[in-house]
Amino acid sequence: MKSEDSALIAELKDDNQRDLAFHKLVKKYQERLYWHIRKMVLNHDDTDDILQNTFIKVWKSIENFREESSLFTWLYRIATNETITFINSKKRRTMLPLNDATDYLRDNLISDPYFEGDKIQMKLQEAILLLPDKQRLVFNMKYFDEIKYEEMSQILDTSVGALKASYHHAAKKIEEYLRNTD
Amino acid sequence: MSELKNDAPKLSEIKKEHPFRVPDNYFEDFSSRLHTRLETEKQALPNPKSRIIRLLKPAIGLAASFILVFLLVFWPLKSFLPSYMAKNNSAIETTTTEEDTYLSILEKIDENSFFALLSESSDEEINDFNDEELMSYVSSNFSEYEIYLETANE
After folding, report:
1. With bands split at pLDDT 50, 70 and 90, how would you rate the model's confidence at A120?
2. How much is the pLDDT for B53?
3. The domain that contains A177 carries what CATH number?
4. Residues 6+ apart with CB under 8 A from A62
5. Among partner residues A35, A59, A120, which is closest to B14 by beta-carbon distance?
6. Is there a domain that residue B105 lies in?
7. Res A35: pLDDT
8. Which residues in B lie closer than 8 A to residue A175 (C-beta atoms)?
9. Which domain holds residue B71?
10. Does A41 lie in the same domain as A91?
11. In chain A, which residues have their Cβ closer than 8 Å to the Cβ of B21?
12. Handedness of CA B55, B59, B62, B64 (dihedral sign)
């Protein structure tokens, strides 16, 4: 996996092979990045915009990628930053307090024609929505994507201890919400 | 996982699956849609040549405006007031030629002849006075009493 990515990075940095290598990179990572973004913004159209922005950014900055982290970590970090930037811009546009985009995201969830979960899954999504952005991110990455804390630590630039605590608090809050709305 | 069962039993009961789906063929088409957008982005990027021009634009603009002001002020003056300009130019030229002549004369004279010329001119000035003229000057400008006081002091 790592050597495969190293070869891909080398091809991406080579002007003659860049286009083809980029196509390979997109094919390889598009789904994982899509779901990572989708779980944060919920709506498909927003996710599509952010995913495109993520890959455009990757294209523009591949020359500066110093391979200090794995390609996967670097892509996740760009996607996460793009997602957070998008959510913050929505908050600013709708004059919401910086920690409250819940209403906008809940509307996104309800109006999304591509949501096909049952009642309990809708309830879980609503509970996740109530979490602060960072906790939501950590919860989604751990609970759904099962990313290791060490890797998450590199992506989010946060200590493993802080991530574990964040996940624990998030799980407790969600459990409480599910119990109260039963 | 067992930790989650203890801490959040309700949560652990929910199936871990995505409740979302994507439009048909979304992932198959994504790459080509991204490619189209990338091409647009590439075209929007300025090439290095035009970047240099863009950097130099303010300086070029400033120089051009100076040239324009010069042309708007100097050229009409020169074409519509030719006599005025000619007069001014000839006055400048005259002053310059007179100065040049003096300088060339001074350069030719050595130090001794210069001082000799100076003393000669002062002697001439003194010799210009004769006794009669002096007497008339004194009598017209001084009273008898003043002349008496002056001669008494000697």
Report:
1. confident
2. 73
3. 1.10.10.10
4. A9, A12, A13, A18, A22
5. A120
6. no
7. 94
8. 7-11
9. 53-80
10. yes
11. 114-116
12. negative
Query: B42 vs A48, which has greater pLDDT?
Result: A48
Which ranges in chain A belong to alpha helices (H)? 2-13, 18-41, 44-61, 71-93, 102-111, 119-129, 133-143, 149-156, 160-180
> Is the model more confident about B114 or about A181?
A181
Token readout for B79 is 């074409």
What DSSP string runs through A16-51? TTHHHHHHHHHHHHHHHHHHHHHHHH--HHHHHHHH
Residue B20 pairs with which residues in a beta bridge? A115
Q: What is the token pair recorded at A164?
A: 């574990």
Q: Name which of A18-27, A93-102, B107-116, B131-140 the model is least confident about.
A: A93-102
A115 has which bridge partners? B20
Answer whether B41 sits within 8 Å of A23, measured CB to CB: no
Same domain, A86 and A139: no
Residue among B19, B8, B5, B3 nearest A179 (CA): B8
Q: How many domains does chain B have?
A: 1
Nearest CA in chain A to B32: A23
* CB spacing of A120 vs B30 below 8 angstroms: no
Tens of pLDDT, residues B52-71: 777 788 888 888 888 888 88
Please report whether residue A112 resides in a domain: no
Please give the backbone phi and psi of residue A115, each rounded to the nearest 5 degrees, phi first: -90, 125
| Domain of A160, in residue numbers | 117-182
**Total residues found in chain B within this entry:** 154
Quick check: B22 pLDDT over 80? Answer: yes
Model pLDDT, residue A86: 92
Q: Is residue A32 predicted with pLDDT exceeding 90?
A: yes
Sign of CA dihedral B93, B94, B95, B97: positive
Per-residue model confidence as pLDDT tens digits over B68-90: 888 888 777 777 666 666 666 65
Mutate to test the interface with A, among B11, B13, B41 (most CBs of A within 10 A): B11
